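Retro notes
What went well: the complex prediction finally ran end to end.
Inputs used:
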Amino acid sequence: MLVKSQEDRPICKEDDISIVRSSVKRVVALLNFSLVNQTKIITAASELARNTLEHGKGGHALIQIIDDGTGRIGLRMIFEDTGPGIPDTDRALEDGFTTGNGMGLGLGGARRLMDEFQLESHAGSGTKVSITKWQERL
Ligand SMILES: Nc1ncnc2c1ncn2[C@@H]1O[C@H](COP(=O)(O)OP(=O)(O)OP(=O)(O)O)[C@@H](O)[C@H]1O
Ligand SMILES: [Mg+2]
């Protein structure tokens, strides 16, 4: 797996979420994802950016164009914070589970919308969520 390009965006205030959204919009168009997949990716990225800000108390997003080694291109986004972490990640992924005022659909939704989803978190030590969508084969 090769990282071909990478952007690192801070997520420290509300406006940063729109900046991340705009970067993701630009990259999905550049990679020629179908309109359906563009929408899925932008939705997943928005949910995770919001979690980073609101639950993680701020962090950053890495937006990477990757190659699987066979020439297949994908978009990977890593959302990382050093906030309070998630004590029970299985529970957090369940639809409807929230510790805030949300609907508790963000994490599970992001997992369903993407091809790959990894969540690493421990109470007290921050959270890292990595999501990937591979380009459709022509
Ligand atoms: N980066 C994070 N740091 C700490 N806790 C998190 C983080 N992301 C998610 N969580 C925890 O997981 C729960 C579920 O997250 P999820 O995004 O599914 O729902 P929500 O953010 O509460 O509501 P919604 O996204 O539907 O508005 C959150 O309520 C929070 O407790
Ligand atoms: Mg959320």
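What we learned: The longest strand covers residues 2-11.
What to try next: split runs per interface for comparison.
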